Amino acid sequence: MAANVLLADDDVELSGMLKEYLEREGFAVTVVHDGEAAARAALGGAHQIVVLDVMMPKVDGVEALRRIRASSRVPVVMLTARGDDVDRIVGLELGADDYVPKPCTPRELVARLRAILRRVQPVADSGPLQAGALMLWPEKRRAEWKGKALDLTSIEFNILEVLMRNAGRVVGKNEISEQALGRPLARFDRSIDVHLSAIRQKLGDGSTLIRTVRGMGYHLVKE
What we know:
- The chain is built from eight helices and twelve strands.
- By secondary structure, the chain is of the alpha/beta class.
- The chain has a five-stranded parallel beta sheet with strand order 2-1-3-4-5, with helices on both faces. The chain has a four-stranded antiparallel beta sheet with strand order 6-7-8-9, with helices on one face.
- Helix 3 (61-69) links the parallel strand 3 and strand 4.
């Protein structure tokens, strides 16, 4: 069954070209051209993944993402101006799953969408992963700290799963990026750090389970 993609970009020519390419690759695509329409459509529940351009009329992509994340965990990919770290980091902090710098090739966008969709699909039940009071059920896409559900984005869940499957050893940022985001980590890319910061914040007093090993990566304590 084709994944339903919501594509929000005010560049009519570009969005038309991307829609055509995505449909050839087997996706079902809905296109909107402003941030208000994007947030409204994303919250309708008919789409498996959302692509948001940062620069859009009415409300921008960052505000649209804020509205979406107020009540939905649908995966969101941001389209950002190349080199614009501010929009990129703000988007990740608000719960974007990934970003693609513009101008991007349709092939790159398709690769990112497929990588994220693969990682949010349920897997065969193999039982929960556990580190102390931290529990994670990969097949249910559910995580708990001290019995309380953690409200994680799809990529935050993937990152935490990578760390839990490797509990007790240091996992490099590039390894985390390849396993959780489906791509190698680019030079100066801070996405993994931003996602880890959000995970720690959501863990509260459990944040000490995840330790930074300077120059190497991250280490989840095996209790």
